[in-house]
Specification:
Blueprint (H helix, E strand, L loop, with lengths): L1 H24 L7 H9 L3 H26 L5 H12 L6 H7 L3 H33 L2 H31 L5 H23 L16 H7 L2 H5 L1 H16 L6 H7 L5 H29 L1 H25 L6 H15 L2 H11 L5 H12 L5 H12 L2 H20 L8
Protein backbone atom coordinates (compact mmCIF):
# COMPACT_ATOMS: atom_id res chain seq x y z
CA UNK A 1 0.00 0.00 0.00
CA UNK A 2 2.84 2.38 0.91
CA UNK A 3 4.65 1.56 -2.33
CA UNK A 4 1.47 2.24 -4.33
CA UNK A 5 1.09 5.64 -2.64
CA UNK A 6 4.76 6.40 -3.35
CA UNK A 7 4.25 5.50 -7.03
CA UNK A 8 1.22 7.78 -7.28
CA UNK A 9 2.88 10.66 -5.44
CA UNK A 10 6.06 10.46 -7.48
CA UNK A 11 4.12 10.13 -10.73
CA UNK A 12 2.23 13.36 -9.99
CA UNK A 13 5.22 15.33 -8.70
CA UNK A 14 7.62 14.21 -11.43
CA UNK A 15 5.00 15.06 -14.05
CA UNK A 16 4.66 18.55 -12.52
CA UNK A 17 8.43 19.01 -12.23
CA UNK A 18 9.04 17.96 -15.82
CA UNK A 19 6.20 20.11 -17.13
CA UNK A 20 7.60 23.18 -15.38
CA UNK A 21 11.10 22.30 -16.58
CA UNK A 22 10.01 22.13 -20.22
CA UNK A 23 8.11 25.38 -19.73
CA UNK A 24 11.08 27.16 -18.16
CA UNK A 25 13.72 25.83 -20.50
CA UNK A 26 11.71 27.02 -23.51
CA UNK A 27 12.82 30.54 -22.52
CA UNK A 28 16.43 29.36 -22.96
CA UNK A 29 16.01 26.87 -25.80
CA UNK A 30 19.35 25.80 -27.27
CA UNK A 31 17.76 25.42 -30.70
CA UNK A 32 15.51 28.49 -30.58
CA UNK A 33 16.38 31.42 -28.29
CA UNK A 34 20.10 30.70 -27.93
CA UNK A 35 20.96 30.78 -31.68
CA UNK A 36 19.19 34.14 -32.06
CA UNK A 37 20.87 35.44 -28.87
CA UNK A 38 24.33 34.35 -30.06
CA UNK A 39 23.73 35.84 -33.50
CA UNK A 40 22.55 39.12 -31.96
CA UNK A 41 25.52 39.47 -29.62
CA UNK A 42 28.31 37.97 -31.79
CA UNK A 43 27.09 37.42 -35.37
CA UNK A 44 29.32 34.32 -35.55
CA UNK A 45 28.31 30.82 -36.65
CA UNK A 46 31.57 29.55 -35.21
CA UNK A 47 30.70 30.89 -31.75
CA UNK A 48 27.23 29.37 -32.04
CA UNK A 49 28.85 26.03 -32.85
CA UNK A 50 31.20 26.51 -29.90
CA UNK A 51 28.24 27.29 -27.63
CA UNK A 52 26.42 24.09 -28.56
CA UNK A 53 29.67 22.08 -28.31
CA UNK A 54 30.52 23.38 -24.83
CA UNK A 55 26.91 22.87 -23.82
CA UNK A 56 27.20 19.21 -24.83
CA UNK A 57 30.48 18.85 -22.90
CA UNK A 58 28.85 20.48 -19.87
CA UNK A 59 25.97 18.02 -20.04
CA UNK A 60 28.27 15.00 -20.21
CA UNK A 61 31.43 15.77 -18.21
CA UNK A 62 29.91 15.94 -14.69
CA UNK A 63 28.20 12.59 -15.37
CA UNK A 64 31.60 11.07 -16.09
CA UNK A 65 33.27 12.56 -13.03
CA UNK A 66 30.52 12.11 -10.44
CA UNK A 67 28.19 9.52 -11.96
CA UNK A 68 30.11 6.48 -10.60
CA UNK A 69 29.45 7.66 -7.04
CA UNK A 70 25.68 8.07 -7.41
CA UNK A 71 25.16 4.31 -7.06
CA UNK A 72 26.52 4.64 -3.49
CA UNK A 73 23.98 7.29 -2.53
CA UNK A 74 21.39 5.74 -0.23
CA UNK A 75 18.68 8.39 -0.74
CA UNK A 76 18.94 9.54 -4.37
CA UNK A 77 15.82 11.71 -4.04
CA UNK A 78 17.66 13.87 -1.48
CA UNK A 79 20.57 14.34 -3.87
CA UNK A 80 18.04 15.23 -6.57
CA UNK A 81 16.48 17.94 -4.41
CA UNK A 82 19.85 19.51 -3.58
CA UNK A 83 21.23 19.72 -7.12
CA UNK A 84 17.96 21.03 -8.54
CA UNK A 85 17.64 23.78 -5.95
CA UNK A 86 21.22 24.83 -6.74
CA UNK A 87 21.13 25.02 -10.52
CA UNK A 88 17.57 25.71 -11.63
CA UNK A 89 17.59 29.43 -10.57
CA UNK A 90 20.97 30.14 -12.27
CA UNK A 91 19.48 32.02 -15.29
CA UNK A 92 18.39 34.72 -12.83
CA UNK A 93 22.07 35.66 -12.50
CA UNK A 94 21.89 37.12 -16.01
CA UNK A 95 19.61 39.96 -14.79
CA UNK A 96 22.44 42.17 -13.41
CA UNK A 97 24.66 41.21 -16.36
CA UNK A 98 22.20 42.61 -18.89
CA UNK A 99 21.75 45.75 -16.80
CA UNK A 100 25.41 46.48 -16.09
CA UNK A 101 27.65 44.98 -18.79
CA UNK A 102 27.74 46.89 -22.08
CA UNK A 103 30.24 44.91 -24.16
CA UNK A 104 28.23 42.32 -26.14
CA UNK A 105 31.08 39.79 -26.24
CA UNK A 106 31.48 39.91 -22.46
CA UNK A 107 27.72 39.41 -22.07
CA UNK A 108 27.96 36.42 -24.40
CA UNK A 109 30.83 34.77 -22.53
CA UNK A 110 29.17 35.31 -19.12
CA UNK A 111 26.02 33.74 -20.52
CA UNK A 112 28.06 30.84 -21.92
CA UNK A 113 29.62 30.22 -18.49
CA UNK A 114 26.23 30.34 -16.75
CA UNK A 115 24.61 28.11 -19.37
CA UNK A 116 27.35 25.48 -19.16
CA UNK A 117 27.22 25.41 -15.35
CA UNK A 118 23.44 25.08 -15.51
CA UNK A 119 23.51 22.12 -17.88
CA UNK A 120 26.51 20.57 -16.13
CA UNK A 121 24.70 20.35 -12.81
CA UNK A 122 21.54 19.35 -14.64
CA UNK A 123 23.47 16.34 -15.98
CA UNK A 124 23.92 15.07 -12.43
CA UNK A 125 20.26 15.81 -11.73
CA UNK A 126 19.37 13.83 -14.85
CA UNK A 127 21.13 10.67 -13.63
CA UNK A 128 19.54 10.99 -10.18
CA UNK A 129 16.12 11.72 -11.72
CA UNK A 130 16.35 8.71 -14.06
CA UNK A 131 17.43 6.46 -11.20
CA UNK A 132 14.48 7.47 -9.01
CA UNK A 133 12.18 7.38 -12.05
CA UNK A 134 13.27 3.88 -13.07
CA UNK A 135 12.88 2.53 -9.54
CA UNK A 136 9.60 4.16 -8.49
CA UNK A 137 7.59 4.47 -11.72
CA UNK A 138 6.27 1.19 -13.22
CA UNK A 139 7.52 0.40 -16.73
CA UNK A 140 4.12 0.67 -18.39
CA UNK A 141 3.67 4.22 -17.03
CA UNK A 142 7.05 5.71 -17.93
CA UNK A 143 6.14 6.70 -21.48
CA UNK A 144 2.84 8.12 -20.24
CA UNK A 145 4.61 10.24 -17.60
CA UNK A 146 7.02 11.65 -20.19
CA UNK A 147 4.10 12.28 -22.52
CA UNK A 148 2.21 14.20 -19.83
CA UNK A 149 5.35 16.21 -19.03
CA UNK A 150 5.89 17.28 -22.60
CA UNK A 151 2.20 17.84 -23.32
CA UNK A 152 1.52 20.01 -20.26
CA UNK A 153 4.92 21.68 -20.53
CA UNK A 154 4.32 22.14 -24.25
CA UNK A 155 1.02 23.94 -23.70
CA UNK A 156 2.75 26.21 -21.20
CA UNK A 157 5.64 26.63 -23.63
CA UNK A 158 3.21 28.04 -26.20
CA UNK A 159 2.76 30.93 -23.79
CA UNK A 160 6.54 31.21 -23.53
CA UNK A 161 6.88 31.13 -27.31
CA UNK A 162 4.28 33.87 -27.68
CA UNK A 163 6.06 36.03 -25.09
CA UNK A 164 9.42 35.43 -26.81
CA UNK A 165 7.93 36.37 -30.19
CA UNK A 166 6.41 39.58 -28.79
CA UNK A 167 9.74 40.56 -27.24
CA UNK A 168 11.88 39.73 -30.29
CA UNK A 169 9.48 41.56 -32.62
CA UNK A 170 9.47 44.64 -30.38
CA UNK A 171 11.41 47.48 -32.02
CA UNK A 172 11.28 49.76 -28.97
CA UNK A 173 12.94 47.64 -26.28
CA UNK A 174 16.75 47.39 -26.48
CA UNK A 175 18.21 43.90 -26.87
CA UNK A 176 19.53 43.72 -23.30
CA UNK A 177 16.05 44.32 -21.85
CA UNK A 178 14.47 41.80 -24.23
CA UNK A 179 16.83 39.04 -23.13
CA UNK A 180 16.73 40.11 -19.48
CA UNK A 181 12.97 39.52 -19.46
CA UNK A 182 13.28 36.22 -21.36
CA UNK A 183 15.99 34.78 -19.07
CA UNK A 184 14.35 36.09 -15.88
CA UNK A 185 11.05 34.40 -16.73
CA UNK A 186 12.90 31.18 -17.53
CA UNK A 187 14.78 31.30 -14.23
CA UNK A 188 11.63 31.86 -12.18
CA UNK A 189 9.77 28.95 -13.80
CA UNK A 190 12.80 26.68 -13.43
CA UNK A 191 12.99 27.56 -9.74
CA UNK A 192 9.37 26.45 -9.40
CA UNK A 193 10.28 23.16 -11.10
CA UNK A 194 12.95 22.56 -8.46
CA UNK A 195 10.45 23.21 -5.68
CA UNK A 196 8.08 20.66 -7.24
CA UNK A 197 10.64 17.87 -6.84
CA UNK A 198 11.16 18.46 -3.10
CA UNK A 199 8.42 16.02 -1.87
CA UNK A 200 9.56 13.17 -4.19
CA UNK A 201 10.64 10.06 -2.25
CA UNK A 202 12.93 7.24 -3.31
CA UNK A 203 12.27 3.58 -2.48
CA UNK A 204 14.79 1.51 -0.48
CA UNK A 205 17.76 0.35 -2.54
CA UNK A 206 20.82 -1.81 -2.10
CA UNK A 207 24.06 0.16 -2.18
CA UNK A 208 27.64 -0.86 -2.72
CA UNK A 209 29.72 -0.81 0.42
CA UNK A 210 33.15 -1.03 -1.17
CA UNK A 211 35.14 2.03 -2.14
CA UNK A 212 34.87 3.01 -5.80
CA UNK A 213 38.20 2.52 -7.64
CA UNK A 214 37.58 4.96 -10.43
CA UNK A 215 39.95 3.60 -13.09
CA UNK A 216 38.93 0.02 -12.39
CA UNK A 217 35.31 1.09 -12.51
CA UNK A 218 35.64 2.72 -15.94
CA UNK A 219 37.54 -0.27 -17.32
CA UNK A 220 34.67 -2.60 -16.40
CA UNK A 221 32.02 -0.54 -18.22
CA UNK A 222 32.67 -1.69 -21.82
CA UNK A 223 31.66 -5.22 -20.81
CA UNK A 224 28.01 -4.08 -20.83
CA UNK A 225 28.26 -3.60 -24.60
CA UNK A 226 29.15 -7.27 -24.97
CA UNK A 227 26.59 -8.53 -22.47
CA UNK A 228 23.62 -6.55 -23.77
CA UNK A 229 23.26 -6.42 -27.57
CA UNK A 230 20.13 -4.22 -27.42
CA UNK A 231 21.97 -1.66 -25.32
CA UNK A 232 24.95 -1.79 -27.70
CA UNK A 233 22.82 -1.24 -30.80
CA UNK A 234 20.99 1.63 -29.13
CA UNK A 235 24.34 3.35 -28.46
CA UNK A 236 25.40 2.91 -32.09
CA UNK A 237 22.20 4.52 -33.39
CA UNK A 238 22.28 7.33 -30.85
CA UNK A 239 25.92 8.13 -31.63
CA UNK A 240 25.32 8.34 -35.38
CA UNK A 241 22.13 10.31 -34.78
CA UNK A 242 24.11 13.03 -33.03
CA UNK A 243 25.64 13.96 -36.39
CA UNK A 244 22.17 14.29 -37.88
CA UNK A 245 21.20 16.62 -35.05
CA UNK A 246 23.94 19.08 -36.04
CA UNK A 247 21.54 20.87 -38.38
CA UNK A 248 18.87 21.65 -35.77
CA UNK A 249 20.55 24.58 -33.92
CA UNK A 250 21.28 26.20 -37.29
CA UNK A 251 17.77 25.98 -38.79
CA UNK A 252 16.71 29.48 -37.72
CA UNK A 253 19.96 31.13 -38.84
CA UNK A 254 19.93 29.09 -42.04
CA UNK A 255 16.47 30.50 -42.69
CA UNK A 256 17.85 34.00 -42.20
CA UNK A 257 21.02 33.69 -44.30
CA UNK A 258 20.05 31.22 -47.06
CA UNK A 259 16.30 31.74 -47.33
CA UNK A 260 16.21 35.47 -46.60
CA UNK A 261 13.62 35.42 -43.79
CA UNK A 262 13.16 38.65 -41.81
CA UNK A 263 13.05 38.93 -38.01
CA UNK A 264 9.27 38.51 -37.92
CA UNK A 265 9.48 35.20 -39.79
CA UNK A 266 12.40 34.03 -37.64
CA UNK A 267 10.48 34.67 -34.41
CA UNK A 268 7.54 32.79 -35.95
CA UNK A 269 9.82 29.79 -36.53
CA UNK A 270 10.67 29.90 -32.81
CA UNK A 271 6.97 29.60 -31.97
CA UNK A 272 6.57 26.66 -34.35
CA UNK A 273 9.51 24.89 -32.70
CA UNK A 274 7.78 25.34 -29.35
CA UNK A 275 4.56 23.94 -30.83
CA UNK A 276 6.58 21.02 -32.16
CA UNK A 277 7.93 20.32 -28.70
CA UNK A 278 4.38 20.05 -27.38
CA UNK A 279 3.17 17.85 -30.24
CA UNK A 280 6.28 15.71 -29.94
CA UNK A 281 5.58 15.16 -26.26
CA UNK A 282 2.11 13.84 -27.10
CA UNK A 283 3.38 11.73 -30.00
CA UNK A 284 6.44 10.16 -28.34
CA UNK A 285 4.54 9.47 -25.11
CA UNK A 286 1.71 7.73 -26.95
CA UNK A 287 4.03 5.71 -29.16
CA UNK A 288 6.02 4.64 -26.10
CA UNK A 289 2.91 3.65 -24.16
CA UNK A 290 1.22 1.82 -27.04
CA UNK A 291 4.09 0.36 -29.07
CA UNK A 292 7.26 0.60 -26.97
CA UNK A 293 10.38 2.74 -26.99
CA UNK A 294 12.00 1.04 -30.00
CA UNK A 295 9.23 2.55 -32.10
CA UNK A 296 9.88 5.95 -30.51
CA UNK A 297 13.52 5.76 -31.62
CA UNK A 298 12.47 4.76 -35.14
CA UNK A 299 9.91 7.58 -35.37
CA UNK A 300 12.45 10.12 -34.08
CA UNK A 301 15.05 9.10 -36.66
CA UNK A 302 12.51 9.21 -39.49
CA UNK A 303 11.59 12.71 -38.30
CA UNK A 304 15.27 13.71 -38.42
CA UNK A 305 15.54 12.44 -41.99
CA UNK A 306 12.47 14.44 -43.04
CA UNK A 307 13.89 17.61 -41.42
CA UNK A 308 17.20 17.31 -43.28
CA UNK A 309 15.71 16.28 -46.64
CA UNK A 310 13.05 19.00 -46.71
CA UNK A 311 15.54 21.68 -45.59
CA UNK A 312 17.90 20.61 -48.36
CA UNK A 313 15.04 20.86 -50.85
CA UNK A 314 14.06 24.32 -49.58
CA UNK A 315 17.58 25.64 -50.14
CA UNK A 316 17.45 24.41 -53.73
CA UNK A 317 13.95 25.69 -54.59
CA UNK A 318 13.98 28.93 -52.57
CA UNK A 319 14.51 31.21 -55.60
CA UNK A 320 11.38 29.80 -57.23
CA UNK A 321 8.99 28.83 -54.41
CA UNK A 322 7.83 30.51 -51.18
CA UNK A 323 9.56 28.34 -48.59
CA UNK A 324 8.36 30.01 -45.38
CA UNK A 325 5.31 27.72 -44.87
CA UNK A 326 7.50 24.68 -45.52
CA UNK A 327 10.10 25.83 -42.99
CA UNK A 328 7.34 26.34 -40.42
CA UNK A 329 6.62 22.62 -40.77
CA UNK A 330 10.35 21.84 -40.57
CA UNK A 331 10.64 23.94 -37.39
CA UNK A 332 7.68 22.09 -35.89
CA UNK A 333 9.35 18.76 -36.64
CA UNK A 334 12.65 20.06 -35.21
CA UNK A 335 10.87 20.96 -31.97
CA UNK A 336 9.34 17.49 -31.85
CA UNK A 337 12.66 15.75 -32.50
CA UNK A 338 14.35 17.68 -29.70
CA UNK A 339 12.27 15.67 -27.21
CA UNK A 340 13.08 12.38 -28.89
CA UNK A 341 15.98 11.72 -26.51
CA UNK A 342 13.36 10.41 -24.10
CA UNK A 343 12.94 7.39 -26.36
CA UNK A 344 16.60 6.53 -25.88
CA UNK A 345 16.45 7.06 -22.10
CA UNK A 346 13.36 4.88 -21.74
CA UNK A 347 14.75 2.21 -24.06
CA UNK A 348 17.90 2.05 -21.92
CA UNK A 349 15.77 1.68 -18.79
CA UNK A 350 13.78 -1.08 -20.52
CA UNK A 351 16.73 -3.20 -21.65
CA UNK A 352 19.09 -2.75 -18.67
CA UNK A 353 18.61 -4.34 -15.27
CA UNK A 354 18.02 -1.98 -12.35
CA UNK A 355 21.37 -2.66 -10.66
CA UNK A 356 23.24 -1.80 -13.88
CA UNK A 357 21.30 1.29 -14.99
CA UNK A 358 23.58 3.97 -13.58
CA UNK A 359 26.65 2.17 -14.95
CA UNK A 360 25.05 1.96 -18.40
CA UNK A 361 24.01 5.63 -18.29
CA UNK A 362 27.61 6.56 -17.53
CA UNK A 363 28.92 4.33 -20.32
CA UNK A 364 26.41 5.96 -22.67
CA UNK A 365 27.84 9.32 -21.62
CA UNK A 366 31.40 8.14 -22.32
CA UNK A 367 30.39 6.98 -25.80
CA UNK A 368 28.69 10.28 -26.65
CA UNK A 369 31.37 12.51 -25.09
CA UNK A 370 33.83 12.49 -28.05
CA UNK A 371 31.02 13.79 -30.27
CA UNK A 372 30.62 16.94 -28.16
CA UNK A 373 32.70 19.19 -30.37
CA UNK A 374 31.00 18.14 -33.59
CA UNK A 375 28.79 21.24 -33.30
CA UNK A 376 31.84 23.50 -33.14
CA UNK A 377 33.28 22.03 -36.32
CA UNK A 378 29.83 22.24 -37.92
CA UNK A 379 29.76 25.96 -37.12
CA UNK A 380 33.31 26.39 -38.37
CA UNK A 381 32.52 24.56 -41.63
CA UNK A 382 29.34 26.58 -42.07
CA UNK A 383 31.27 29.84 -41.73
CA UNK A 384 33.61 28.67 -44.51
CA UNK A 385 31.37 26.59 -46.81
CA UNK A 386 27.80 27.65 -46.09
CA UNK A 387 24.90 25.50 -44.93
CA UNK A 388 24.38 23.22 -47.92
CA UNK A 389 27.15 20.66 -47.14
CA UNK A 390 25.94 20.37 -43.52
CA UNK A 391 22.34 19.79 -44.60
CA UNK A 392 23.35 17.17 -47.20
CA UNK A 393 25.47 15.37 -44.59
CA UNK A 394 22.46 15.33 -42.24
CA UNK A 395 20.36 13.67 -44.96
CA UNK A 396 22.93 10.84 -45.27
CA UNK A 397 22.99 10.42 -41.49
CA UNK A 398 19.18 10.34 -41.36
CA UNK A 399 19.01 7.54 -43.92
CA UNK A 400 21.60 5.52 -41.96
CA UNK A 401 19.94 5.88 -38.54
CA UNK A 402 16.49 5.12 -39.96
CA UNK A 403 17.74 1.82 -41.42
CA UNK A 404 19.52 0.89 -38.16
CA UNK A 405 16.43 1.81 -36.10
CA UNK A 406 14.27 -0.54 -38.17
CA UNK A 407 16.64 -3.38 -37.23
CA UNK A 408 16.67 -2.49 -33.51
CA UNK A 409 14.96 -5.10 -31.34
CA UNK A 410 11.90 -4.23 -29.29
CA UNK A 411 12.31 -4.60 -25.54
CA UNK A 412 10.12 -5.64 -22.62
CA UNK A 413 9.73 -3.30 -19.70
CA UNK A 414 12.34 -3.68 -16.95
CA UNK A 415 11.04 -2.96 -13.45
Amino acid sequence: MYITRAYNRNFTLMTLEGSLFFFGISFLGENTVVPIFVDTYTGSMQLLGLTIALLTVAKLLPKLLLGPYISQVKDVSRLLRIVMLIHRPLPLLMIPVFLIVKDPLIVFFIFLLMYCIFWGINGIAGIAWSDVFGRTIPGDLRGKLHGYQQFIGGIASLIAGYIIKLLLDNNILPNNIKYLIIFALGGLVLLCSALAIVPVKDTPKNIQCEKVMIMKYFLTLPSYLKKNINYRNMNIIQSISRFGDLIIPFIILLSKDNLGFDSYKLSTLVVFQVIGGMLGGILWGNISHRFGNKQVILAVEITGLIISAVTFLCILINPYVMTFPIMCIVSTLAGAKAGGWLGYVNYLIDVVEEENRIDCMILNTIILFPLSFANYFAGLATDKLGFLPLVFFSVVVGITTTILSIKLKSANYSH
